[in-house]
Amino acid sequence: MTKKIKVAIAGLGNCASSLIQGLEYYKDVGDNDELVPGLMHNVIGDYKISDIEVVAAFDIDKRKVGKDISEAMFEKPNNTTVFCSKIPKTGVIVKMSPVLDGVAEHMSEYSEEQRFIVADKKPCNVVEELKKSGAQMLVNYMPVGSQEATEFFAEACLKAGIGFINAMPVFICSDKDWVKRFEEKNIPCLGDDIKAQVGATITHRTLAHLFSERGVTVDKSYQLNFGGNTDFLNMLERRRLKSKKVSKTEAVEAELSQRLGYDNLHIGPSDFIPFLKDNKICFLRMEGRKFGNVPVTIELRLSVEDSPNSAGVIIDAVRMMKLAIDREIGGALLSPSAYFMKHPMEQITDDKAREMVEEFILNKRER
């Protein structure tokens, strides 16, 4: 077994920047240190944060392609909070990947600081680069709505024989046909659509679970989100939101005692507000009936820096994937997917999913 966990990243945006900053920021943390906020454990199995090494990165933006990831991760249009600015040179150069459907057409109407600028470069052979780098898994950070691009990287992982972590709402690890292909090659996959540390979805799920557990009938609910990063700019094109809406809605519905029709449960982004940068604002409302059919309503405003909110979750997911690789487990990792992702193969309540993940870590549960 290789002690290092070698990771490739597809899409060097805000989420990747927060992840790489976190790897440097917490590199000296051990099992006996204070628990890192956002992690299940400082050490999972035998793997510390410092064991994770980014060995390959792919992007399409001219400000990133051809640069060391230590430099590219801070280039525009990235605008997340910088909490660790001193990232050593890695020697890992960002490679040009195929664009496919990764760039929404309407982005051309916005300033260069806010949008992607496609590099005038020939795409690399991604499978060859993955093999050459020694990557054991790839984290997919494609923009919302990038069906073709996400499928391309999933296919590349199958060809390269490495694990696939899908942080985006394109259904791969929750699609039976894709999962079967990973099973046949005995390659693990984990997804889909990252569930942030304390984000809109996990907060909505927690409130829905509370209402359900306390016997309150939920009649109507909405979740509106807006921010100023490229994700929200990308999502102004509503046609790219089909799978995102399904992912977020099903994640919340799984905690309700009864399903609501789309007329009574609305979840989705609202707008792009540039000055918010990577800050995400969520307005959430739940209307229900308690004893005697007396109304009860909750309204909540949540403000979070979007990308660091997912970085710790990915660090845990990466280490779960490495445990699966060490144990030669292929196919969808059911319990880690249910705990870390919005749209797993099987929806499980968060408290139960965490118990199952703890069992997985101790090798008491196969997946």
Largest sheet: 7 strands, parallel
Distance N to C terminus: 19 Å
Mean pLDDT: 96
- Tally of discrete structural domains: 2
What is the CATH class of the largest domain?
Alpha Beta
Q: CATH superfamily name of the largest domain?
A: NAD(P)-binding Rossmann-like Domain
CATH architecture of the largest domain: 3-Layer(aba) Sandwich
What is the beta-strand fraction?
A: 15-25%
**Which class do the helix and strand fractions yield?**
alpha/beta
Textual characterization of the structure:
The chain starts with a strand and ends in a 6-residue tail after the last helix. About 30% of the residues lie in helices and about 20% in strands. The model has no long low-confidence stretch (mean pLDDT about 95). The longest helix is centred in the last third of the chain and has 19 residues, at about 310-325. By secondary structure, it is an alpha/beta fold. The chain folds into 2 domains: about 5-195 and about 310-360, NAD(P)-binding Rossmann-like Domain (Rossmann fold, 3-Layer(aba) Sandwich); about 200-305, 2-Layer Sandwich (Dihydrodipicolinate Reductase, domain 2). It has a 7-stranded parallel beta sheet, sandwiched between helices. The chain has helices at about 15-25, 70, 125-135, 145-160, 175-185, 200-215, 230-235, 240-255, 310-325, 335-340, 350-360, and strands at about 5-10, 50-60, 95, 135-140, 165, 190, 215-225, 265-270, 280-290, 295-305, 330.
